[in-house]
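Risk register update: the risk that structure generation would not scale has been downgraded. Supporting records follow, first protein first.
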Amino acid sequence: MKPTSLCLALLCAGAPLASAQTASHPVGIEVDVPEGYAWKQGYRYKPSTVIYLEGTAPEAHPPAIIVNAIDMGREVPSEDLFRQTREVFADLDGQAEEVELPNGRYLRVDFQVQLAEKGGTRRTVRQRCYARMHGRTAFYFFLANLEPERFARAVTAFDALVAGARFEARTGAGSTDPESRPAAASEAAPAREGEAAPAREGEAAPAREGEA
């Protein structure tokens, strides 16, 4: 089935920032929190979000590292997940490459989008996605909300986080909506052309184009 268009489902309620060396979720994922980031425990950027890390520096647009997990209902071959992910990012001219990391094989995709800002302006951000299967769960790691020059400075720490992620088999996942399983990459993607950027702690998300 062809993946549906990317969608954004921001939840704007505030969540406490947690000081921690690691961040984890019962779905069976644990990551090391890079220097300069804090774990927003309980914050769900999307229904599938299981870990959300936010930059701690006083910036107007803090970087975000997002881990989304979707229960596919069965074990899906990596090749099928990679093909679906490539299709989702094709309209964004995503640069996709399969990579072998110490903890498994991933599809890595770099892409750029124009995000809507308050006042009707737009901001170009560069994002990186790593996708992989573990058991019956599809995991998506995103580095988001960074202009190209800041992306270049932040990507090394993000790559190290993904390479060091620890996985453990679990029976459930971050999102179990049957409608999302055939289009996991669409449901997991953080933002696409014309959509709003992540909100800062305690802020409402900027309205999308055409919204009040």
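Supporting record for the second protein:
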Amino acid sequence: MLSKTKSVAAYKVGQIFYQVMITDDGCPAVEEWHVRTIRGGYVHAIWKLNRTTWGKRSSKHGDFGWLARIPKWCRKKWKLDPAAVYSFDRIPDDFKTTKLAAIRHEIKSLDPLDYDDPAAFERAGKALKSMATRARGKKK
């Protein structure tokens, strides 16, 4: 399935994308991906993860920010070209601009065959629906 791609002007440094990941036991978590740079025809996004990519930068002051070394497993990149042929050159299908959209995408793509335990599938479905209800009720 081809993902809907955005135009080149749609990406901005500092833009946030959301992705929902579900563990094997059925516990969902929303992850934040921040666009750090746009260069060389690629968009570079970093997973905001406490104490790994984001944290306290100084021992004396209370300033927080991106840490110096970002592991490779916390980085993703894709081409700006909307006509990218290969799947690794396009924005991941599960990257959404709002938390609610990411949760809804995960609810639609939920498959019972992905889980060994039917109870974990039910837990994941229940948790995602309650997350969607909470995200729908929040005001910005």
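Strands lie at 16-22, 28-39, 42-47, 54-56, 64-66, 75-79. On this basis the risk owner (M.S.) recommends closing the item.
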